[in-house]
Specification:
Blueprint: E1 3-5, E2 8-10, E3 13-22, E4 32-38, E5 43-49, E6 73-83, E7 86-96
Parallel strand pairs: 5-7
Antiparallel strand pairs: 1-2, 3-4, 3-6, 4-5, 6-7
Subcellular location: Chromosome, Telomere; Nucleus
Keywords: Chromosome, DNA-binding, Nucleus, Telomere
Protein name: CST complex subunit STN1
Length: 104
């Protein structure tokens, strides 16, 4: 299922942005982490399922969710969908970006 941007179907996207909010609840197995990303064009609601195979691809840390902190710039890849009439990004991969000029 695709979301539409004007007349273009979107199935898989990659974004770079700053984490501006993170749901404070600690995820349990099968639960989700919700966070908001600001990519300088809009705020994007993101959902990361805690039992998915998502990993921080550029780190050896065993807890990749620890890199989802306020103010951190991250790359996210995933699929766009609608939930309760709002667009959201279901994250399949993410990793922090340490280059402060990456968003320029």
């Amino acid at each position: 299922k695709a979301c539409w941007l004007e007349s273009h179907p979107l199935r898989f996207v990659e974004l770079l942005g700053i984490v501006v909010s993170v749901d404070p609840r600690t995820p349990r197995k099968g639960d989700r982490v919700c966070f908001t990303l600001d990519d300088s064009t809009a705020f994007v609601e993101c959902v990361l399922w805690s039992d998915s195979e998502v990993s921080d691809v550029h780190s050896t840390h065993s807890r990749p969710l620890g890199s989802l902190r306020l103010g951190v710039m991250v790359h996210v890849q995933g699929s766009v969908s609608r939930f309760r009439e709002r667009r959201q990004l279901t994250v399949e991969r993410f990793w922090p970006d340490h280059d402060c000029m990456a968003e320029c």
